[in-house]
Amino acid sequence: MGKVFVDLTHPFGAEIPRWPYFDKPFIEGKHSMAKGGVLTQYVGCTQHTGTHCDAPRHVMEVEFDGRRARYTHEMPVDAYTGDAVCLDIKIERWGLIMPEHLEDACKRANIKPSELKGMVLCLNTGMHRLFDDSKEYYHYSCGTGVDAAKWFVEKGVKCVAMDMQALDHPLHTAMGENGMTRMNLLGATGQPIIEEYKQEFGEEAYAIFNKFDYIKYYGEEAYLEKYGDLEAIGCWGTWEPCHKTMLGNGIVGIENLGGDLDKVTNKRFRFYCFPLRWYMGDGSMARCVAEIDEKDINKGVKDRTYMYCGVGAEDRDIFLKKALPVSKKSKLKTKTNKIAPSYAAAKKAAPKKKAK
Fold first, then answer.
1. Which terminal residue of the chain has fewer beta carbons within 10 Å of its beta carbon, N or C?
2. What is the tens place of the pLDDT at every residue in 166-190?
3. Residue 193, Cα to own-chain centre: how many angstroms?
4. Is residue 68 helix, strand or coil?
5. Is the pLDDT of residue 343 over 50?
6. CA dist 67 to 159, 229, 235, 290, Å?
7. How far apart are the C-alpha atoms of 55 and 124, rounded to whole Å?
8. Residue pair 294/1 in contact by the 8 Å Cβ criterion
9. Does the pLDDT at position 348 exceed 80?
10. Residue 326 pLDDT more than 60?
11. What CA dihedral angle connects 80, 82, 88 and 92, to 10 degrees?
């Protein structure tokens, strides 16, 4: 047995799931085989679609060393490539990934955190299995924040590739109440997702995602201790703090890692990822691949079959079986804490109509 390549990329197409405020990819045929004897297609889309890389300029004006934040073309050609390990992150639905989750994952991958210096760190939270145009994948994803980012910086990793919707927890993004582009999206209950989170975990727990609530509950000194480095360079502390802490310290990031990630979880391998050489780019779609000894691939893991946008799925039960477990800290009853009942269960629970 020799080296083999394992694809860690979600397939791209016009119907690919995309972040809530991004446009749908536009694909148009310019030439067809029947008419012109060649197939030529035009593609127009936001580069932060599907599996993609982020450059520092995407989220900040200045990096921590004082330089103007770099564009895609200014990053080293191997910035997103190198020796890698894939960590199996044990985290609940909507959970905030903390250093203790990362330390635990390192133990199970048989790698010391001190060995991570200069490596590409791939995170498998299980979210990649839920990749879809759905609230479960976007609104209720687990995610990272400033504490995980500081851990990445402390360990000196080169790049972090995550199988989630962003390099930050959803409530640290504009899906909640952060940023000039904030949406405060409505959740499955019809309430804003920030209100759903407060009901499930409490207002004090939510405060970590909101600058003004954090100061209200814990004081300005505590806020500056956690987010002061970001504020010092003109960044809104609770708005995508993992993005900015990583990228501002020269650690690049990849979002929506997918494909056959389960085949290389808890393994070491060579990771390849090359963005477009886009002048003044803020990021780029990319192909991510693991090169690994065939004998080291996790046994019994089937090739990934994609069923997003409802294609190939028989019913919602198939989808829900892949969902992350409900947090033990949840104040809601488990039955009411599901994103939605399956169609079959809902139909069974519906009141029976009386025969006339």
1. C
2. 999 999 999 999 999 999 999 999 9
3. 17
4. strand
5. no
6. 19, 15, 15, 32
7. 21
8. yes
9. no
10. yes
11. -20
220 membership: H or E segment, kind and range: helix 220-232
Inter-axis angle of helices 146-155 and 220-232, nearest 10: 60
Residue 137 or residue 316, greater confidence: 137
Instruction: Pick the closest to residue 262 from 305, 297, 313, 308 (CA basis).
Output: 297
Residues facing 284 on adjacent strands:
53
Provide the token pair at 7.
Answer: 């694809």
281 pLDDT band, cuts 50/70/90, is: very high
Comparison of pLDDT for 305 and 144, the residue scoring more: 144
Host H or E run for residue 285:
strand 283-285
List the helix and strand counts (H, then E) for the chain: 11, 13
Q: Report whether 143 contacts 238 (CB < 8 A).
A: no
CATH 3.50.30.50 fits 3-179+239-296, yes or no: yes
- CA 229/CA 63 separation, integer angstroms: 11
Q: Give the pairing of strands 252-255 and 159-162.
A: parallel
Kindly give the pairing relationship between strand 120-124 and strand 159-162: parallel
The answer to whether 216 and 120 have CB atoms below 8 angstroms apart is no
Beta 268-273 vs 252-255: how paired, if at all?
Answer: unpaired
Enter the pTM of the model. Answer: 0.90
pLDDT at 240 over 60: yes
Amino acid at 296: D
Q: To which H or E segment does residue 336 belong?
A: none
In sequence order, the 6+-apart residues with CB closer than 8 A to the CB of 353 are none
- pLDDT for 140: 96
- Determine the Cα–Cα distance for residues 61 and 67; give it in Å rounded to an integer: 9
Q: How many whole angstroms from its chain centre is CA 277?
A: 23
Report helix, strand or coil for 186.
strand
Q: Give the model's pLDDT for residue 334.
A: 46
**pLDDT digits 0-9 by tens, 29-64:** 999 999 999 999 999 999 999 999 999 999 999 999
- Sign of the torsion angle spanned by Cα atoms 211, 214, 218, 223: negative
CB 246 within 8 A of CB 259: no
